[in-house]
Design goal:
The model has no long low-confidence stretch (mean pLDDT about 95). The longest helix is centred in the last third of the chain and has 43 residues. Helix 1 runs parallel beside helix 3. The protein is mostly helical. The structure holds fe (ii) ion.
Length: about 170
Amino acid sequence: MATSTLQDLLIETLRDTYHAEKQLVKALPRMAKAATSEELKAAFNNHLAVTVEQVNRLEQAFELLGAPVRSKRCAAMEGLIEEGKELINEDIEPQVLDAGLIAAAQKVEHYEIAAYGTLRTWAEMLGHTEAAELFQTTLDEEAEADETLTQLAESGVNAEANSAGVEEEDER
Ligand SMILES: [Fe+2]
């Protein structure tokens, strides 16, 4: 299919986002397992449940737009997840890893916030009101997840990471 209209681009972007979310369903359990902070583990596990629901919502959106449910490789999310994996595989202090995992997860959330904002606006423009509402619901969830991560970072994870590094240096 040639991409000639905004409707085509909307479907392409939907396919890209579908692939992104499905990759995230696989990555979040790894991130939860790698996290040390119980709150951070819980936040990742909670967002996993939310993400599974977001995948369902995207499938509903395909139906509303009259397009087959299909993914298109999302290289951006692959890259973001790959960077998260590299971090987990590094020789890294657990508390420092937690701070890094939050940073990696926030990059993912911001990517998704951009994607869903675009999907919502295009769907609205093209008169797909119901689909636009679905995208807005997910957009709100992504913003909430981002906010939770900021709170976790500011309420202790960054400070723990900071003192973990200092203790390490004292021991040397
Ligand atoms: Fe998501």
